[in-house]
Amino acid sequence: MLKSSSYVYTSTRRISFFVPSSRLNEFNKRQLQNNASLETFVKNYEEIQQYSAKFATSLHGTKLNSLDQTSEFQFNPNVDVLADSLNSINFKFLQDENEKTAVSTFSDKTKSEKFIPKIRFLLYDADLRNLYNFLKCNVNKITHFEGNLSSYEISLIIKRLLYYNDSLAHRLKFVTKNKHYLDEEVDHYVKKLNSFSRAVYQSTKSIFNGLSKIELSLYDYENIILFHYQKNYLNKAIELISELEKKVLENPEKYHLTNTLWAIKMDILSQTNTNFWKIYGETIYKLNSNHKVNFKYTYPHHGHNFQTLVKRYETEKEKNSLPDSTSVLEVIIKGMGKHGDLTALDSFIESNWGIKNDRKGDKGVYFLEHFNIRKRINGLLWPNEDVLISILLAYAKNGDLATALEINNLILDKYNHEKFLNASNTTKYWTLALRCSGLYGDALDKQLAKDLPENELSDAFGTSLLEIKYRFFDTVWQMSEKYVNHLNRDMIKLKMKYASSHELLKGLPNVHSKMTEITYNKMSLNLKVNETALNNYVRECCLELARRGRFLDASQLIEKFVSSEQTVNELKEMLVEMQEAYARERVKHDERKRQIIDDDDDFELW
């Protein structure tokens, strides 16, 4: 049984355990983890606590703690990179109101002799829009490419169109992410850029449809399918794979499915794509429902349950001498997790990367001593960021988040000397890990509220059973701090929502230091957003102190960590209101207490 912490006092975030296990349902995998049993959660918590203690004293943990977390950064304070980047974005091209209307620049009598030289000229034009616009307006003449353009030139057309779409996507992502830095017309810009990007996709799709009428190379098909897949148009991607597989059956000497195409095919048909993924009933990534594949979809060439797909891939891999591929392994890992086959998943990870999960014994997760990494692992199967995320999702799907974190930390320990994770990817991975642990806690809330009457949601000391999720999150957070040098705002939001009050208050100086350090604010426009995030964090800390009745401490905390005079005044006004409410509640409490005493005295007199 777990013990409550002596330093947590609030009524909303205290943690203690008194588990009437006979009243709790066992975790049900078939319900897609919409809920979680307390037994399973406690087991995860105990495992991650034991591992965390061992990890802190391990060679790897000591090495991480000894690393210098800060580095000097020299820059000219008068240069604002972000401001210059936003100002450099040319919005004038958005004035093209006819983007969705393709008008041919050639008459019907135009000879292909003039069309082909124009294409060859535009292939090397520095402005990609010229080639795109010319093809968009002459889709009906694309069939003239066959016999007039080389396969290299056709491939170059496809690559340049893909590059143009990618440049728009990056621009849209950049503007959307930083739109709060722009003027009041920013929403118009973002909407216009979104509309423009969708229209360019549709026009590019029409061009690619025209190209599909001529003979393309396998490399061209792979690029086109990957284009639709990365844009999350999964229906179109699987439709094109189906058409290509028909060509494979007709001409197996020329065509076959590459590892990339197999990964896409398996990812869509077995619905292991992260856009479909749910952890404890909550989606990880939001996706327009129009982009999803209908669950009733039938692949025309064979069945598409997970086992069938894996067997067909293994057969085709041997037949076509396909090289090893982590992209396929990622899908297989997620597939095993989604189908609840943890025994196979344990064996799969052990055979590929030498990390064993001893479920029957007491060794837990450990690295096999006889496993020679250099001899057993080639560069093609070296684990990467996507492998870590796949393992995290697969185990978390089955209520085994602790195992996922232990395995991934061992992978980082044994394989990361190749530095496959940079600062950005490390933050991305740990943000997802924190989100999974938070969602797991939310699922526990729902399960306990469902299984136990309200008067049994606390132990004999009045401590809520629902608070286990905060301590679990604290452990994962402390683990993430050993890897993440610079906290991002998403991590801070998760901490505000899921951390215990002790961890929340203890972490304030570190959050303040990170959010105000010069390397994190090297762009002046970043200051505003970071200041807002910091003020929200301070506000949450004030609320926790106020719930304890420690209003003076909360006031001092505001003065120490908030720089804006306006925010200081707003937070202090909030404290005054809470203090008045707190005082009224105390008066009512004292009155009720006196009434009970008076009633007892009356009884004695009677």
Walkthrough of the structure:
Pfam families: ATP13 (PF12921). InterPro entries: ATPase_expression_mit (IPR024319). This is ATPase expression protein 2, mitochondrial. It comes from Pichia membranifaciens. Required for translation of the mitochondrial OLI1 transcript coding for the mitochondrial ATP synthase subunit 9. Strand 1 (278-279) and strand 2 (282-283) form a beta hairpin. The longest helix has 41 residues, at 565-605. The protein has a two-stranded antiparallel ribbon with strand order 1-2. It has a two-stranded antiparallel sheet with strand order 3-4. The protein is an all-alpha fold and 606 residues long. It has a domain at 113-216. The protein is built from 24 helices and four strands.
What's the total count of β strands? 4
Catalogue the unreliable spans: 1-12, 14-32, 67-83, 94-105
Question: From N to C, what is the helix and strand string?
Answer: HHHHHHHHHHEEHHHEEHHHHHHHHHHH
Any idea what the radius of gyration is? Answer: 29 Å
Give the % helix.
55-70%
Query: Which shape, going by the Cα principal axes?
Result: globular
Count of helix runs: 24
Strand content: under 5%
Q: Which class best fits the helix and strand makeup? A: mainly alpha
Mean pLDDT: 79
Biggest sheet details:
2 strands, antiparallel
- What is the CA-CA span between the terminal residues? 47 Å
Strand order of the largest sheet: 1-2
Coiled coil: 561-588
Main location: mitochondrion
InterPro entries: ATPase_expression_mit (IPR024319)
Family: Belongs to the AEP2 family.
